[in-house]
Amino acid sequence: MSISNSLPTILVVDDEESFIEALQVGLKREGFRVEVARDGAEALAVFDAIRPDAVLLDVMLPKV
């Protein structure tokens, strides 16, 4: 098992690129694996595929 697979995973769901980048930097620095979805439909697919430990969700997201 690789180290990256053992890290807690957070799914970031947002359509604002600058916010995504800021969260990725901070969360990775704190030891999390970060996956990203940019709309509701993509978020559901990614969630089913990876089963993250937590989700950070933009409530004003397209395709929800």
Task: Give structural notes.
With 64 residues, this protein is α/β, with parallel strands linked by helices. The chain has a domain of 34 residues. The chain has 3 helices and 3 strands; from the N terminus they run αβαβαβ. Strands 2-1-3 form a 3-stranded parallel sheet, sandwiched between helices. α2 links the parallel β1 and β2. The radius of gyration is 12 Å and the shape is flat. It starts with a helix and ends in a 7-residue tail after the last strand.
Write the layout of secondary structure elements.
Layout (H helix, E strand, L loop, with lengths): L2 H4 L2 E5 L3 H13 L3 E5 L2 H11 L3 E4 L7
Parallel strand pairs: 1-2, 1-3
Head-to-tail CA distance between termini: 34 Å
Q: Judging from the principal axes of the Cα atoms, what is the shape?
A: flat
Element order: H for helix, E for strand = HEHEHE
Strand order of the largest sheet: 2-1-3
What's the overall average pLDDT, rounded? Answer: 92
Mind describing the biggest β-sheet? 3 strands, parallel
Name the beta content range: 15-25%
The number of helical segments is: 3
Q: What is the radius of gyration computed over CA atoms, rounded to a whole number of angstroms?
A: 12 Å
Number of strands: 3
Q: Spans of 5+ residues with little confidence (pLDDT < 50)? A: none
Query: Helix fraction?
Result: 40-55%
| SS-based class | alpha/beta
